[in-house]
Every structure is written in C-alpha cells, then in structure tokens.
Specification:
Elements lengths: L2 H4 L5 E12 L6 H16 L8 E5 L8 H8 L5 E4 L6 H15 L4 E8 L5 H7 L3 H6 L8 H16 L3 H15 L13 H6 L2 E3 L2 E2 L8 E10 H6 L4 E11 L13 H12 L8 E3 L5 H10 L8 H7 L15 H5 L6 H13 L13 E10 L4 E10 L4
Parallel strand pairs: 2-3, 2-4, 9-10
Antiparallel strand pairs: 1-7, 1-8, 4-7, 5-6, 8-11, 10-11
Helix pairs in contact: 8-13
C-alpha cells in the first residue's frame, strides 16, 4: 500500500476561506493585510483569538519581521508556527503542514495566511533581493525579474510543442470571463482574443495580458478536525490528497516539466479518484505557459499536448474543463505570496457552494496546484491538492 494511502487526511478539513480585497497599491504594510485576514477568519468561524493555536504564514513583504514577530503584532499565543517563503507553492505547502499539525495534536486550529503589500517600489525591491542565483547569473546580462524568465520558457515551449499565441490567448480570455463574476478581481473589463493578441509587447513573445499584475491583498483559511468544524456549524472541504516537490528535474537544461509529473500517480492514488472525477482545476497562473505545464504534468494530457487540449475544451466555469474559476492571478491580480493561496480559497468556496462568483455546477471534487520561486531558468517549488465537498 502506498505511503500516501496510509497517511490520509480524513480527520482534518479546510474551512472559512477569506479574501481581503486586492488593491493595486496600498499604504498599508503586510502586517495590516495579515491582521485583516485573521479578523476575517475569526468572524467567519465564530472562534475567539485564543482558539487559534497554530499559524502558517506566507509573505514576502513582512520584513524585518518574520512569522514569530507577527504573533506579537496580532496578539496571538501559539503552540505551533511556520513561515513558508515559497511564493506560488506557499498555499499548498501551508495546507500540508497545517493538516499534519492538527492530526498530530501539535495544534487544534491552524490559521493559514498569505498576505503581502504592494507599494510603489515594492516589486522592484523584492526582485533585487529575491535570489542570489538571479543576481549572479542574470543581472550581469541586463535581464531581471520574472518577465524575462517566463519569456524564455514560453518561447522554448512554443518552438518545442507548436503552441500558438492564440492557445495562450484562449486561456487568458476564458479566465477573464470567469473573473468578471468575481467581486475581488482587479480586472473588470472583458478581454477579447484580438485585444490579447494586439496588446503591447513586454518581453518577446510575452505581451501585456500574459503577465501577472502585482498588487496587495491577503488570502486565508482554517484547518481543524472535522468534528470541530461540524460543532461550529462550518461548511468545509475534505482533503483527499496532497503532494509537494522541490528542485525537481535539476538536470533538465530548460524547465518544461515539474514535480507534478513525479508525484501525480501517488496523488491520485492517495485521493482515490481519477482525472475524470475532477470537476475543476485551479492552477498557479502567473503566466499562461505555467498553466499548460500543470495541465500536462498533472496528467490531464501528455507532455506537449497542452495546446491541443486547450483547443478541444471550453475553459470557463460553464465549460467542459473549468480552470481558474475566479479568474486566476492573470485577472484577479498577484498579491505576493497570497497568490499561492488563491486557488485554495476559491476551491473551498466552490466545494461548499459558497462561491463569490460563478459556481461550477454540482462541483464535488477539485484539484489545486501551486508553483513558485522562479530563478532565471526554472521554478523550484511545486505542489498540488485534491479536495472534495462534504458529500463527495
């Protein structure tokens, strides 16, 4: 029997998804957004602050504080604490850590929070200290930041697998359609394929709507035992399976796959479901090519078949393959490390029938994947979780 199957998550659940509305820029710090998220968790659960005895935090802009410094700002007294500096994978990793903390008895209620601010120079400052590898290997050539990295990966993918800009555009347009129904999305205007194709060039072949927009905001959820959630009268999602992997395939000269490929069989075996059981997919989508990589590596199609897969499906909430049902980061915005939590809060809402936007009809099982910490040529962290509603 698989080790995953022996260590399931049947007695720990995810509940009370919270989104602190995103703004393009904010005068508030990350501490303020984290505090707002905690307040939302307490209000949504009916718990007192003293009931929260675990915290798992994802944030890039909390410095000079770390998670332990934040406990004093928030007035929390904790038995269990973790800080996950893993960007787009932070939500999945936080979920995994919190589940095990609750199961082991190290904590009874864990708040998982992703929170970041975005001020006028925040993004530039973050890039300057993001990676020693980038500083040493990239900046001397005049390239810095994710646009150049993902242009490199996107152009290689297009040459290798025959992807067209229209393929990426179909995904971006569908996600924008989903976002128009989501109240927290920063992009409120419908996007046409022609507008996508004609947008200004950013880093060839990437154009404006291929690139995620940094912003400020927070996402959060609670992890607790099922019995506690039921006693509190909370709707919750069950966690059927999870995985994470770091620095996968280091010998690949260019990243065209990630750790999902190594762990997907175990993930689905742990969950006890097949690909056909998945009602919707939430990918980490700071650039469209990464969503295609997740679709392929999670096993919905073979490597290199992502473009044809997109051509064969409709991708909106009402479509044959609903993806990023709130609009994803490309239409909602990327609130720093909170972006790694966006897919999870959206999935919990879909599975509990509490969607803030469009609802996938009869959604029972969803898959959320995360991807983060990009150096020049690859992202180092990935993970995924399969969640189910209470009745599934």
């Amino acid at each position: 029997m698989s080790a995953y199957r022996r260590h399931g998550y049947h007695d720990a659940v995810v509940t009370v998804p919270v989104t602190i509305p995103y703004v393009r820029y904010s005068i508030h710090g990350a501490h303020w957004f984290a505090a707002r998220a905690l307040a939302g968790l307490l209000e949504g659960s009916g718990l007192a602050k003293s009931d929260i005895d675990g915290l798992c935090l994802g944030s890039f802009t909390l410095a000079p504080d770390t998670a332990v410094g934040l406990t004093q700002h928030l007035g929390l007294t904790l038995r269990w604490l973790d800080h996950i500096p893993m960007g787009g994978a932070a939500g999945i990793v936080a979920l995994r850590r919190a589940l095990r903390a609750v199961q082991s008895g190290d904590a009874t209620v864990v708040a998982c929070v992703g929170a970041d601010t975005n001020q006028v120079d925040t993004f530039r400052a973050t890039l300057g200290s993001f990676s020693q590898f980038a500083q040493d290997a990239v900046y001397p050539y005049g390239a810095g930041g994710p646009n150049a990295s993902f242009a490199f990966l996107t152009s290689h993918y297009m040459r290798e697998y025959g992807a067209l800009r229209e393929d990426f555009g179909k995904l971006c347009v569908a996600q924008r359609d989903n976002a128009l129904k989501f109240p927290h999305a920063l992009f409120k205007k419908r996007l046409t394929l022609q507008e996508y194709l004609d947008a200004r060039l950013v880093a060839d072949p990437l154009r404006l709507f291929d690139c995620v927009m940094p912003c400020a905001g927070a996402e959060a959820f609670l992890v607790m035992r099922r019995e506690r959630a039921q006693d509190l009268g909370l709707r919750f999602a069950r966690v059927l399976g999870t995985h994470e992997r770091h620095n996968s395939f280091p010998d690949d000269p260019i990243q065209m796959r990630c750790g999902w490929e190594l762990d997907r069989d175990e993930l689905f075996a742990q969950a006890g479901v097949s690909h056909g059981d998945i009602d919707f997919l939430e990918t980490y989508d700071d650039y469209p090519v990464i969503s295609l990589m997740q679709i392929e590596d999670l096993g919905f199609c073979a490597k290199g078949e992502g473009p044809q897969f997109l051509r064969n499906h409709t991708l909106t909430v009402e479509g044959s393959f609903p993806i990023n049902t709130c609009g994803g980061q490309l239409s909602v915005g990327q609130a720093g490390a909170a972006a790694g939590f966006l897919g999870l809060t959206e999935a919990v809402r879909q599975l509990t029938g509490e969607s803030l936007g469009a609802q996938v009809a009869d959604a029972q099982i969803g898959l959320v994947s995360g991807f983060g910490m990009i150096n020049y040529d690859r992202g180092l962290c990935c993970g995924a979780a399969i969640l189910a509603g209470q009745a599934a």
